[in-house]
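Hey team,

Filing this mostly as a record. A colleague (T.K.) asked me to run one chain through the structure pipeline before their review meeting, and I want the input and output archived in the tracker in case anyone asks later how it was produced. No errors, nothing strange. Just documentation.

Input sequence:
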Amino acid sequence: MGTAEDETSVFEEYRDRVDRPLARLFREYGSPEIHWLIVGMVANVLARASSLLPPVVLGVAIDAVFLDRTGYSLLFLPDRFVPAGETAQFWFSVQLIVAAFVATAVLTWVYGVAANNFAHGVMHAVRVDSFEKMQSLDMWFFDGKQTGEVMSVLNNDTTNLERFLDNALQNSVRLGVMVIGIAVVLFSENAQLAALTLVAVPLMVGFTWWFMRAVEPRYTSQRESVGDLNTRLENALGGMQLIKTSGTESYESDRVRDASYSYFQDTMAVLKLNYLYRPGMELFAGLAFATTFVVGGLWLTTGTAPGPLTGTLSEGQFVTFLFLTQRFTAPLAEVSNIVDSYENAKASSERVFGLQDVPRRITDREDAVALDDPDGRVVYDDVSFGYEDGDPGAPDTGEASSDGAWADGGSPGTVDADGTGGVDETSGTTETDEPEEWVLESVDFTAEPGDTVAFVGPTGAGKSTLVKLLLRLYDTDTGAIRIDGHDVRDVETASLRSSIGYVSQDTFLFDGSVADNVRYGEFDADREAVVAACEAAEADEFVRNLPDGYDTRIGERGVKLSGGQRQRLSIARTVLQDPEILVLDEATSAVDTETELLIQRSLDRLAADRTTFVIAHRLSTIRDADTVLVLEDGQIVERGTHDDLLAEDGLYAKLWGVQAGEIESLPSEFLDRARERRAETLSDDD
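Output structure:
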């Protein structure tokens, strides 16, 4: 069961449901910034119109001033504004040309500022909304390994939309204004020659239509291949240690080479059409120019209209035709870029709204209550949790440890067939069909305030899932979890999670200073509180030995620190949070024995007088737990104190014996079950 593929298909399903994505983009995000769009459009139209004025003025000046063959008359300019006399008309022409260039420059600046305000304003809103939506999504989405998709939405897709709104949209307006404006001017100068000159425009339109139909599937293939290449590179970078330790550099190089070559081929397929289109458009424009030059030249040199043409053509009109015919090429040649931006923007907006349309499962009820300063009495009442259609959503990532204990992870179910995830919007709970495969089944226990409850068991037994349900990262299918009598589904999620401190084996630190990482979540904490938290977490000594002490930048994910140092800063962060309930999820599993002793001492301080749940890696760390729950196949098979369970001589006693060295190995039936679960996990990963 390739669950990543299942979750990706869910994401794609919501993308496919998006109707008219660009129209939705303008409707939802363009409206607040519409004034900038209007200003930009108007300025763009006026700027392009101003740029057409110099050739017209030049043609009129040639005929009226230099050749003195016609009166000085400009389209849309009343004759009363035209001065008398050739010299005055000459300087008037100069003023008009200079004014046109100045107006074009000023209006282009206004258009640029307005267009960028519109484009970047929309993109700012899209990016922030997408990030907030991403943060609100439930853990099932991220267990589906959608991180790369989300990063692509927040970075690449918003950039594509910005380019479309800023460049392609305005270039489309520019294209329309130039083509229509040039046609109007040419027909006003000489309708017959204009009709002959503009006969190339329908050919250009037909050529452009063919190009758009031919290039669209190639753009689709190119986007898919670049996505495959990025995924391959991301996986290779993330797994660099495994690649090096496995000696598989050449294998990975071959895979990257294949993905890169596919991208190369798809890119060349697009470029070949682009390089056919641009010269083709220039050829049509060149033919129009050559036709104008030949026909107009013969008309002037012979003094009679060639062929079926009639009437007269002046030298000034001929010059205007030549200048404006050349203006067709640039805007029409931009069509390929406009098509490129449009296709990218359409796909990107589908991805943006696909992300925003993914439903939430975990929502607060309308009458949810705040969990303020709880005593910490936690009750699991007949709790069961599983996956729909037998699909675990994401495989259990636990590993069997060398000393006979196991770690496990939990994951969510899949969304319903209708794509809603079964969310009851009024209650904030998830209504699902009964799962075919249970991760937890009929779990009952109570933790009194201040108790320490430990969970042990083999991989896939459901230990991590138990605490994830407490944090309401997922909701139970049946039964209830209560804190001080409140069902966690009736509690405001923010207040619930702020009351629970979570220390995981997978410590995450941000790129920033030590102090900033410790006070994360308690941002107003002063330096004294940060230092006190680090002292309680056995971290103060090593922090003071860092180059800049508490102000030392620790790098992305705390890369400049050892695993034990990162773990102690994570504990210090939880100490500063001062939660009423504490969850320790294999908090010492990835460190050496000496570091474990330091961390365990700080954990003991942190757990004092708090309700604490411990997922145990080394059973020696839970000897003093008030209750030890042994899970197997999602059920509690043993419970009691450390001494009670040893006396029962069951699974816990066997695990303890292996770790203590009293038993050489686990009984074969336990090992066989562990191997079967591990094989299922690996199969899911595939």
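Quick notes for T.K.: The CA atoms of residues 351 and 461 lie 37 Å apart. The chain has a mean pLDDT of 79.
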